[in-house]
């Protein structure tokens, strides 16, 4: 699952593909209905609803958080938007410009500043052709008791290579991720 960008550095804006994170079932169903009514795709992995899928172009997040979907979307330069975006698109019966709805456009005191700014910062950086992905050329050794695949996906969508230290004999890494107490 390597990081990808088109030759122009832009994603195809005609084919929107959404993921949702942080919503209760009722609101999630409302948002999916809006996505479908506007003829876009909704990506869902029924085996693990928390899994980020790189095919998505947009992640709608209830709040800035450290979920796999939110962090992977930031690391890969996807749009990370507030749900208001979908409601306003439904009202106008068309896709609107995303910038006004992006997390980080207006900061709130309710959430950590770094988490709010990350989506906008990385999407803006990665839209420029000469900018590298956040983990580009990194070889990350991962030594954690849980969620090895989550960390692996995050590093890989961000342009790096992730290696499980529990199962490899590789000896050369640029970074090591270790869970406290390991």
From TrEMBL:
Source organism (scientific name): Clavelina lepadiformis
Name recorded for this polypeptide: BRCT domain-containing protein
Membrane-spanning parts: none
Domain of life: Eukaryota
Domain BRCT span(s) in chain numbering: 10-93
SUPFAM superfamilies tied to this protein: BRCT domain
One Pfam short name: RTT107_BRCT_5
